[in-house]
Amino acid sequence: MNDKTLEIDAVERNIQPESKQFEAAHPIDLPATPSSQDSSSTYQWYVVIICMVAYILSFVDRQILSLMIEPIKADLMLSDTQFSLLQGLAFSLFYAFMGVPIAALADKKSRIKIISIGIAFWSLATAACGLSKNFIQMFLARLSVGAGEAALSPAFYSIVADLFPKEKLGRALGVYAIGAFIGSGLAFLIGGYVIGLLKEVDFVVLPLIGELKTWQLTFFLVGLPGVLLALVMILTVREPSRKGVKVGQDGEVVKASFKNSVAFIKLHKKTFFCHFIGFSFYTMMLYSLLGWAPAYYMRHFGLDASQTGYVLGCIILVANTAGALFCGWLIDFFSKRGYSDAAIRAGALGCAALIIPSVLFTQVDNLYLSFALIFVAMFFSTFPIPASAAATQMLTPNQLRAQVSAKFLLISNLIALGVGTTAVALITDNYFENTLMVGNSISIVNAVAGVIGVFLLYKGCRYYRDSIQHEKLN
């Protein structure tokens, strides 16, 4: 390899000719000179924290809907199945599909700018949910929320792998992942507070907008702060140097392209099949809990929206946050002890531990026992976010990381969020034909998804070890 190739700037690498023999390509760390900001531990964690705050807002914006199920259904005249489409398919459709082209840009252009634009877009789209007058308007607004949020995770996963060594990657991803659960917890707490505060108020009047119901006002309150965060990010975070770029035998950098990302996945097809599908079914259990637990407690135990929001919000803030951090620690623990399949291994263990509590919490008649079981379930339900991300970043070369991550999120969200949440509603509406039976629907979905997830992740550990070894040898 000549000196000229080694001096290629990170921004220019993506325009080089692609290798003719992709399978023979091997990863190296080009001797880029990182800026002082890149090498500062404090700055590295600042980037993680600000992206975690963005992740918090994204989950507040997507999750607030589930707590307001009853007033939204009443005002927009929706069935459980229609509501599940707003909660799952409407969001996941654009979240999944827009992630692929956005990730292609993230592998070539400024990831920080892409994330900042995405934050502003989904925040405005969340506020637009509060203007919805019917199912179609709400569906389109939720599509836009998903499109904006698609910019965050693939780009962040690519950035964090440039900021941290592999033995610290699990903790960094664990800290980022807690944003999902702080966001979900805050969604329930904020929603419960606003609903309780305004329960005697039929509507409020805003200048230029007019009359709004309580649930519509809630969307404005949780959506607009994201615009300020987008400004903070664009002004304070710089694009990090790209590391671990893949080059071919001829010394030329493999082009960041859709074709090459697909070729890399095909090269490790058994690994990625178990990874993508296994973590998708694992994540399905998480979304069935987040999406339908509020409805279960309100319908089965007679709690109101405020009570449900406060209790579930506290459970999620404690159990899910602790679970995400524990998973990150567990990945690093396995990595330091020489397990090349550390992330997949942690995921398989978490999925196995989740099955029993996620099925049983709807099958007990004691409210406090149900809360105890869902606490345990929420703890283990967090593992797929840091574990799936770490597994992808440890195996994939730099210029393909965002695109491979986006393809995983495409499949995961269509299966977990699109199919999973809707499956609960379909079983309730069409099999039980009784909305009070939503708890049994949750148990059925979680039992099936859990068994499939454990089986595929267990099988995937061996395939993942083989893939890591292949990349080291080539």
Automatic annotation (TrEMBL):
Pfam families named among the record's database cross-references: MFS_1
Q: Gene3D superfamilies, per this entry?
A: MFS general substrate transporter like domains (1.20.1250.20)
Q: Which GO terms describe its cellular component?
A: membrane
Where does the record place the Major facilitator superfamily (MFS) profile domain? Answer: 47-465
Q: How does it sit in the membrane?
A: Multi-pass membrane protein
Question: Origin, by domain of life?
Answer: Bacteria
KW Amino-acid biosynthesis (keyword) present: no
Q: What are the transmembrane regions?
A: 43-62, 83-106, 112-132, 173-195, 215-237, 272-290, 310-331, 343-361, 367-387, 408-427, 439-458
Location(s) in or outside the cell: Membrane
| Xref: CDD domains | MFS_spinster_like
Q: Which keywords does this Swiss-Prot/TrEMBL entry list?
A: Membrane, Transmembrane, Transmembrane helix, Transport
List, in alphabetical order, the Gene Ontology terms for molecular function in this entry.
Answer: transmembrane transporter activity
**The protein's name:** Major facilitator superfamily (MFS) profile domain-containing protein
Q: Which organism is it from?
A: Acinetobacter indicus CIP 110367
